[in-house]
Write a structure and sequence with these properties.
Blueprint: E1 15-16, H1 24-39, E2 45-46, E3 48-49, H2 58-68, E4 75-76, H3 92-107, H4 109-122, E5 127-128, H5 130-133, E6 147-149, E7 153-155, E8 165-170, E9 176-178, E10 189-190, E11 195-200, E12 208-211, E13 216-219, H6 225-228, E14 233-238, E15 245-251, H7 259-262, E16 266-273, E17 276-284, E18 293-300, E19 306-311, E20 314-316, E21 319-321, E22 327-329, E23 334-335, E24 340-346
Parallel strand pairs: 1-2, 3-4, 14-18
Antiparallel strand pairs: 5-6, 6-7, 7-12, 8-11, 9-10, 9-12, 13-14, 15-16, 16-17, 17-24, 18-22, 18-23, 19-20, 19-24, 21-22
Helix pairs in contact: 2-3
């Protein structure tokens, strides 16, 4: 971990953005620093959460923990002589806000790990500005208080004291799904239109949106990364305007050096096209891959009414579809080491 880095350092080290101040201005500016270092080829980067110099405040620390959960390098750190800023010292409200944000991060570690793999093998960024994904949308070129994880997840943190809502830009080039209540799928919904919106965000809410067409792997979160790897896996498939979605998964043992070069890894691709979800193993020489099991699949924005589903050709009634087009397929036991398909059979309209 270094703060004295140069082009090429990202091959070897993580970077933190130096001794920042515990104020709202530095909270906002940390996003710019994170995005710049991703462009410099140093994606494992983050700021000192809650600030380093000076005493922080409970509401500032709560909002910073929400944002910091989505720094690629996430660390709360402060200076000698300042007040304690462990989230627990501010009481149960800040502790819960922090825990909720970190639980989302731990759920999305397979996605984040895949983004780092793609950076390592293909270049590109992990955290990126909106204009990276929407270069023809001129409105995105000056937005520096929202950012993306890969092409799929948009994070729009609240950066002003006492704010209970914020303006969010949704590029009209995509469908967007609100997933801020990450562990309550019945509260997911598709935004009715693109452009600028006002999004309600009281202290406990971190605005999150999934982009249509960009699928995301996730896992059941645990107390640490070892425990998280023991939980079930899942895939979220937010549909685009063609009712399609696709994504990738990279996984290895999480500890060994040279897993890619030695081939000790799993690489897979998943997609939904014409009502069929398919999972295909592209490469797998990792002995631990048979321990990864997909137990739930979520489809967002599926507007046709489902009559039945088949899992690898076998009928199943283990699914739920709400009136907002959110579909959950549950009680699955699909190994990550094998190919599989799920077919959504819709009711034919006369």
């Amino acid at each position: 971990l270094s703060r004295s880095t140069f082009v090429g350092s990202g091959t070897w080290v993580a970077h933190w953005l130096g001794d920042n101040f515990s104020n709202w201005s530095n909270l906002r500016k940390s996003i710019i620093g994170m995005l710049q270092f991703n462009q410099f080829g140093i994606p494992f980067v983050g700021a000192d959460i809650c600030g380093f110099i000076g005493d922080t405040e409970p509401d500032l620390c709560a909002r910073w923990q929400q944002l910091g959960a989505f720094y690629p390098f996430s660390r709360n750190h402060n200076a000698l002589g300042t007040i304690e800023q462990d989230p627990g010292v501010f009481g149960p409200e800040v502790a819960k806000i922090t825990k909720d944000a970190l639980m989302i991060r731990y759920s999305l570690l397979p996605f984040l790990y895949t983004l780092f793999y793609q950076h390592y093998t293909q270049g590109g960024t992990v955290a990126r500005p909106l204009w990276h994904e929407f270069p023809r949308d001129s409105e995105t070129r000056t937005i520096d208080d929202q950012f993306m994880w890969g092409k799929a997840l948009m994070i729009s943190p609240v950066l002003e004291k006492d704010a209970t809502n914020r303006s969010i830009y949704l590029s009209p080039e995509s469908r967007w799904y609100s997933v801020s209540e990450f562990f309550t799928i019945e509260n997911f919904y598709e935004e009715p239109s693109g452009g600028w919106i006002t999004y309600e965000a009281p202290m406990e809410v971190l605005p999150l949106h999934l982009r249509g067409g960009a699928a995301v792997p996730f896992q059941q979160p645990g107390l640490n990364t070892v425990e998280s790897r023991k939980g079930g896996m899942g895939i979220m498939l937010p549909l685009d305007g063609n009712n399609e979605s696709e994504g990738d998964l990279y996984y290895d043992d999480g500890e060994s050096i040279g897993s890619q070069e030695n081939g000790d890894c799993l690489i897979s691709h998943f997609q939904m096209i014409q009502g069929e979800i398919s999972y295909n193993v592209m490469f797998n020489h990792w002995e631990g891959s048979d321990q990864l099991v997909f137990t739930v699949i979520t489809v967002l924005g599926f507007r046709d009414e489902i009559e039945s589903i088949t899992v690898n050709g076998v009928g199943s009634r283990n699914f739920y579809q709400d009136d907002k087009g959110m579909v959950t397929i549950y009680m699955l036991q699909l190994p990550a080491s094998e190919n599989w398909t799920i077919k959504l059979n819709t009711i034919q309209k006369p």
